[in-house]
């Protein structure tokens, strides 16, 4: 008998699960349709994005629209009835959504990453079972990271064998999307210390999801604490995630490229807001000699510089997506390393432009842009929070070791 030692003093704060979708989700036909759907949804999501951030309103209806649109199944392989779009397209979709509301863009990240992992590590029967769920509109959340471990990949959550199922115990944090998920993949270790995705039903007895995310940014990513107290997971839903990193695969780069796309989306939103504010609200500086803020030569130069740097990040993002496509189709040490390196390059530039654009917004738009009624600080808060997902300073080390000494990047979800 398994005895849990998980602390459950917060269980009274549990958020109840949401129902599965009543109708089947749309299945996207091709890359062009995926981009078109993303633009259509973004036009709706942006309308109340400031209010959702300010009042921390959960994007319940928006998330249903997002997953039911078919964009949450765009990397399901064609062999299983999915669209299998290019990862360059997938990244563009996330960027477009994130420019409208970066919290909504981030919520899809772990779902799409788990779909990619299932393709890499699961057998055909498990792939057929889980991909069918995704195509119907089932959303994966995540219960990966742990709050008190020494390093990000040090997991204390474990499972034990119980015939046709396993029993999982542990506690997680940073669980983006878990609150409104239908299934929650839990990273848990077996007796040999190998990490698996134990995909639990969101309403499984013993699975407690708590809305205690208190960060100043990405406020509606539906993150927080997940308590796992003797949770039963059928072995059909036990995915050997460790296999994605015991040999070269694109799994790590896929998790990373979606993070990059969230940040380029934030940067795009900040530049758009800057242009709009300067064109409609900002005043020309007293010494500028011009009547309109948009004619200020220093503002013109700054907008040109920011846009150029964003375009550079976007170009690398697209290049990384195409490199990932090659690594998925032909996973070798060389193709996987190339995908990791280009994605790391994109991560560096996307982090820098997200921080620069969200900070420069206030300098160029002027003092009135800081007024609470505009809530423009949400872009900086979101950029500063999201870019902490993994330290970009280590990306420079990865790049230097590769180009100077031919050392390939490590294989894990942060590389």
TrEMBL record:
Highest taxon, organism lineage: Bacteria
Enzyme Commission (EC) number: 1.-.-.-
Enzyme class: oxidoreductase
Cited InterPro entries: Acyl-CoA_DH_C, Acyl-CoA_Oxase/DH_mid-dom_sf, AcylCo_DH-like_C, AcylCoA_DH/ox_N, AcylCoA_DH/ox_N_sf, AcylCoA_DH/oxidase_NM_dom_sf, S04_starv_induced_SfnB
Boundaries of every Acyl-CoA dehydrogenase/oxidase N-terminal domain copy: 38-137
GO molecular function: oxidoreductase activity
Record bears the keyword Transmembrane: no
UniProt signal peptide: none
Record-annotated Acyl-CoA dehydrogenase C-terminal domain positions: 258-390
Keywords tagged on the record: Oxidoreductase
NCBIfam families: sulfur_SfnB
Protein name: SfnB family sulfur acquisition oxidoreductase
């Amino acid at each position: 008998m398994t005895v849990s030692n998980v602390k459950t003093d917060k269980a009274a704060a549990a958020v109840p699960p949401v129902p599965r979708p009543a109708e089947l989700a749309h299945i996207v036909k091709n890359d062009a349709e995926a981009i078109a759907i993303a633009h259509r949804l973004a036009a709706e999501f942006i309308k109340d994005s400031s209010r959702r951030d300010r009042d921390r309103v959960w994007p319940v209806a928006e998330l249903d629209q997002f997953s039911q649109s078919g964009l949450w199944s765009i990397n399901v392989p064609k062999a299983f009835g999915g669209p299998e779009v290019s990862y360059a397209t997938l990244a563009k979709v996330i960027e477009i959504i994130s420019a409208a509301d970066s919290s909504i863009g981030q919520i899809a990240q772990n779902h799409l990453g788990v779909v990619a992992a299932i393709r890499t590590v699961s057998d055909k029967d498990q792939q057929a079972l889980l991909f069918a769920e995704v195509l119907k509109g089932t959303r994966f959340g995540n219960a990966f990271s742990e709050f008190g471990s020494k390093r990000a990949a040090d997991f204390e959550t474990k499972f034990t064998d119980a015939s046709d199922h396993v029993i999982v115990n542990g506690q997680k944090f940073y669980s983006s999307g878990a609150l409104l998920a239908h299934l929650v993949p839990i990273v848990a270790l077996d007796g040999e210390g190998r990490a698996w995705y134990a995909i639990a039903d969101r309403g499984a007895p013993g699975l407690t999801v708590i809305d205690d995310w208190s960060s100043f940014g990405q406020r509606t990513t539906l993150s927080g604490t997940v308590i796992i107290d003797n949770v039963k997971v059928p072995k059909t839903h036990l995915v050997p995630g460790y296999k994605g990193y015991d040999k070269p695969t694109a799994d790590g780069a896929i998790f990373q490229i979606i993070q990059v796309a969230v940040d380029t989306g934030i940067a795009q939103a900040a530049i758009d807001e800057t242009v709009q504010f300067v064109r409609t609200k900002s005043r020309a500086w007293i010494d500028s000699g011009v009547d309109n803020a948009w004619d200020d030569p220093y503002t013109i130069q700054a907008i040109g510089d920011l846009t150029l740097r964003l375009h550079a990040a976007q170009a690398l993002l697209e290049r990384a997506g195409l490199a990932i496509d090659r690594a998925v189709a032909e996973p070798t040490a060389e193709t996987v390393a190339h995908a990791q390196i280009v994605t790391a390059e994109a991560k560096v530039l996307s982090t820098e432009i997200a921080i620069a654009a969200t900070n420069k917004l206030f300098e160029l738009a002027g003092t009135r842009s800081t007024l609470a009624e505009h809530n423009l600080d949400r872009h900086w808060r979101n950029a500063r929070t999201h870019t902490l997902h993994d330290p970009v300073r280590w990306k420079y080390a990865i790049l230097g070791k590769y180009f100077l000494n031919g050392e390939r990047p490590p294989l894990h979800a942060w590389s």
